[in-house]
Amino acid sequence: MALEFDKSIIGKIFDETDFPPITKEEIVEFAASLGETNPLYTDEAAASKGPHKGLIAPPTFVTKLRPTKFTPENLPKFGKVGFDGGRDLEVFAPVRPGDSLTMLSTIHEIYEKTGRTGSMYFIVIRNEVKNQKGEKVAVIDHRIMQR
Amino acid sequence: MSTVYFEEIEEGDEIPPIDMPLSKDQVRRYAKTANMYFPRFTDDEGARAEGLPGMIAPGVMSMGLLARMISDWNQAATIKRIGTTFRSPVLPDRNIHLRGAVTQKNAADHTVECDVWMENDDGERWVIGTATVTVPTKA
After folding, report:
1. How far apart are CA B71 and CA B49, in angstroms?
2. Which residues of A touch B25 (CB under 8 A)?
């Protein structure tokens, strides 16, 4: 059974959010909350002698960025209940203190899977993160399951 | 820094595991810094009001902990990609076991493919995933 919905929703930017400059303190706290001990994320003095010449954020730091609008207004509802199905994160450049990040959100994909317990619908929201130099920093695909 | 070089890694190598209790306070601390300070991630009653059995950890926290396992193993490694599937809610005040193994080496770009997962005391895999990691070379 093909899913019925307005396909023009796919790939269209529905949210663009600019974030305040990233601080050293929030990087260090994010790393600490995960128990990171890698000096690249936790120790500015040690990190300044390392390959990045300064502190960088752990790779999953960008998952804390919250868009203004999580989904587009015209997103169809396929099921009654929604679950967080997972994340795929691709990292292109490190996040550093002082970076001003922008996130662009699109619906990347909508598909259906049928299993023993019935149909499940997957909505993939793609959040692309850029920095103030226009460099692509990361792409986060967020899989939402509905049934 | 603890560095593991590409030449020292073999397919099938286990990533040093992390076994830890996941406390509610640690989940709250993560939820606060990660802009996810919502009832389901902060207290049992709030979570039950949302139809959950009790307080749970954010999926992205599990992803962050699996990324930390890779960074603990090899501080000079760079995660290029990590994908995780949240198969079951992660409930705090229990032990979690972070596990991983190298499944493939790619000499062309000095990356390794890894399977990563989080399981509970009964060996149930709450979170599963894969990662592509760039590692330094001696050459």
Report:
1. 37
2. none
The model's pLDDT over B4-13, given as tens digits with 9 standing for 90+, comes to: 999 999 999 9
Q: Please state, in angstroms and as integers, the Cα–Cα distance from residue B16 to each residue in B70, B89, B96, B101, B121, following that order.
A: 8, 24, 14, 9, 17
State the complex-level ipTM: 0.96
Are residues A60 and B83, on separate chains, in Cβ contact within 8 Å?
Answer: no
Count CA within 13 A, CB hemisphere, residue B106: 12
* pLDDT band with cut points at 50, 70 and 90 for residue A128: very high
Most A CBs within 10 Å, among B33, B36, B65, B72, to test the A interface:
B33
B window 77-96, beta carbon within 8 A of A: 78-86
As a whole number of angstroms, the distance between CA A42 and CA A59 comes to 13
8 Å CB contact between A110 and A10: yes
Q: Which ranges constitute the DSSP H helices of chain B?
A: 24-33, 44-49, 59-73
H helix or E strand, kind and range, residue B19: strand B14-22
The token pair that represents A74 in the structure block: 């015209």
Would you say how long chain A is, in residues?
147
Q: What are the strands of the beta sheet with B111-119, ordered from one edge?
A: A13-18, A102-115, A118-130, A136-146, A82-91, B78-86, B125-134, B111-119, B94-106, B14-22
Reported as a single tens digit per residue, the pLDDT across B21-61 is 999 999 999 999 999 999 999 999 999 998 889 999 999 99
Task: Characterize B72-110 residue by residue with b for buried, 16 or more Cβ atoms within 10 angstroms of its Cβ, and e for exposed.
Answer: bbbbbbbbbbbbbbbeebbbbeeebbbbbebeebeeeeb
